[in-house]
Amino acid sequence: MEPSVVLLREAQILLPSTKLVNKVAVITGGARGIGAAAAKLFAQNGAHVVIADILDDLGATLADSIGGRYIHCDVSKEADVESAVELALGWKGQLDIMFNNAGIPGPSGSITSLDMEKVQKLLSVNVLGYLHGIKYAAAAMIKTRKGGSIICTSSSAAIMGGLGGHAYTLSKESINGLVRSAACELGVHGIRVNCISPHGVPSEMLVNAFKEHLGKKDMQADDVSKIVGETGSLLRGRCATVEDVAQAALFLASEDSGFITAHNLVLDGGYTSACSTMSFIYQSS
After folding, report:
1. What DSSP designation does 164 have?
2. How many CB atoms sit inside 10 A of residue 175's CB?
3. How far is CA 213 from the centre of its chain?
4. pLDDT digits over 63-84, tens only?
5. How far apart are CA 137 and CA 115, in angstroms?
6. N or C terminus of the chain: which is more exposed, having fewer CB within 10 Å?
7. CA 273, 277, 278, 279 torsion: positive or negative?
8. Are 125 and 75 a contacting pair, CB within 8 Å?
9. Domain boundaries, the chain
């Protein structure tokens, strides 16, 4: 290999990533889990990041570490989401990326005994919270006339039944429909609207769900990863990580996906597309 080629490759390794250079992003639920991974990755790629969350200590500490901003934001409250967008505009004069990621698991159990107060709370966060985010992000992006990318975190539960509680499934399927309808209106302004549907990511939310349903209070993220990797993925032994989802968000936020809108990017190791329990039929006898 020519020495000049080697030097060029070494230089590329040393250079910081610039997929989002000088872009301004708001990430709801950005203090931990998927949101925190995305905040770090966006900042590494040159973005100015506003973390909007209700976990003040975690959010503020992370924002400081990446040169971003933090704002207390309960996405179920319209005014809080408006304030998060206004913070971005006041800080950098624009908003290029809105990552609607905040969400809660909600009640589980039989549909015949659902606690409707808990259902209303879930919908106020998982559905209205996303509607608030799209509403104010779109208004800001239209005003600055620079286009933009709006991303929403959905779930494999919106694709297959039995992967989440009834109310949670309802909320995630609603997000997919909202993304498609918003993309129809906002495309004429150069604003792309997409969603990501992760499956089996061993976040704190999923670990707690496994603890509850399996009755194992000492269960850890590694235990969940093993279970999902063995039974919930065609890529045996592999499950999605928060970093995998952050990479998907980076792709949808950047110009790498410049002609993609109204799309649901599924991160499930093929689980919702094919039946792995019948894989024995492909083996040689």
Report:
1. S
2. 25
3. 24
4. 999 999 999 999 999 999 999 9
5. 32
6. C
7. positive
8. yes
9. 18-200+241-269, 202-239
Exposed / middle / buried, residue 145 (Cβ in 10 Å: 0-12, 13-18, 19+)? exposed
Return the number of other C-beta atoms located less than 10 Å from residue 113's C-beta. 7
Q: Which helix or strand (DSSP H or E) is residue 86 part of?
A: helix 78-92
Q: Measuring CA to CA, which residue among 27, 25, 58 is closest to residue 204?
A: 58
pLDDT in tens, 134-184: 999 999 999 999 999 999 999 999 999 998 999 999 999 999 999 999 999
Fold annotation for 18-200+241-269 = Rossmann fold (3.40.50)
- The answer to whether 284 touches 247, Cβ cutoff 8 Å, is no
Q: What would the mean pLDDT of 204-223 be, rounded to a whole number?
A: 72
End-to-end CA distance of the chain: 46
Supply the DSSP symbol for 32.
Answer: S
Task: Identify which of 24, 154, 173 has the alpha carbon closest to the alpha carbon of residue 89.
Answer: 24
Q: How far is CA 31 from the centre of its chain?
A: 12
User: How many other CB atoms are there within 10 angstroms of residue 118's CB atom?
Assistant: 15
* Token pair belonging to 224: 């969940």
Instruction: Determine whether 136 is an active site residue.
Output: no
| Residue 44 identity (one-letter amino acid) | Q
Selecting among 70, 130, 136, 168, the annotated active-site residue is 168
Instruction: Give the helix/strand (H/E) hosting 183.
Output: helix 166-186
Q: Which residues pair with 25 in a beta bridge?
A: 49, 97
DSSP character at residue 195: E
pTM: 0.90
Instruction: Tell me how long the chain is.
Output: 285
| DSSP 3-state percent helix, strand, coil across the chain (nearest 5) | 55, 15, 35
Question: Which of 4-13, 75-84, 209-218, 256-265 has the least mean pLDDT?
Answer: 4-13
